[in-house]
Each structure stands twice: as structure tokens, then as C-alpha cells.
Design goal:
- This protein is an alpha+beta fold.
- It is built from two helices and five strands, in the order αβββαββ.
- Strand 2 and strand 3 form a beta hairpin.
């Protein structure tokens, strides 16, 4: 991954985390990893564990950010969430969310919060 893409992703994840906190979520962990599995943000609100995939793009020339979540990524998210839930059995309720960010500059962006998606 290029340095430019990493910077874009990092900026998007920061904006996503800020959005979640401002809307009553508690961030549990960012960039959770286990082997080849990764979850961008694990958050909670009430008694629900939220698995949040963040997609950030600087251009929609090749589609909107949320359109870049493919079948393999969906399966990895499900597997990662199942493992995290197994390791932390307190969490009985689980929800998958997507935050799609169209980034125009560090100061100008559009954020779309897609709640309770089904993979």
C-alpha cells in the first residue's frame, strides 16, 4: 500500500472515530488484528458491540467508498467479529456498521454512516 493510501486511510479512520465518539459510542479498539483478520474500529453503544469498517476515498472515479467492500473483506469481518466475540463473551449483541468517507481535503469531507449492515 502506498504512503498516500495509508495517509488517506489513517485520516479517514480518525474522522470515523471522532464521529462515533461525538454520537455516543465508546471506542474499544482501533485496528484490531489477528493473523490476516483486521477490524478498523470496534466500538460499543449501550449493550451492543459495533464492528465498524471504514472506507475512505479521495475520488469517486472508481465508485463510492462503500462499494469497495468485497466478499472477501465481508467474510474476514465476520470471522474477525466471531473471534473477538469468542475472546470477549460479555458481548452478546453484535452489529456491523460501515463508515464511508469521501475526502476532498483534510478540512473538507463527506461522511456516510451505514448502520446494521448484513454481510
Amino acid at each position: 500500500m502506498s504512503h498516500h493510501n495509508k495517509d488517506t486511510g489513517f485520516l479517514g479512520e480518525n474522522k470515523a472515530a471522532e464521529y462515533l465518539v461525538n454520537n455516543g459510542y465508546s471506542i474499544i479498539v482501533r485496528n484490531w488484528r489477528y493473523k490476516h483478520l483486521e477490524i478498523d474500529i470496534i466500538a460499543s453503544k449501550g449493550n451492543c458491540l459495533h464492528i465498524v469498517e471504514v472506507k475512505t476515498r479521495r475520488s469517486n472515479q472508481f465508485g463510492f467508498p462503500e462499494q469497495h467492500i468485497d466478499v472477501i473483506k465481508m467474510q474476514h469481518l465476520k470471522n474477525g467479529a466471531a473471534l473477538y466475540q469468542y475472546q470477549h463473551p460479555f458481548w452478546k449483541t453484535l452489529q456491523f456498521d460501515v463508515i464511508a468517507i469521501q475526502l476532498y481535503s483534510a478540512e473538507k469531507w463527506e461522511l456516510f454512516f451505514i448502520e446494521d449492515v448484513y454481510f
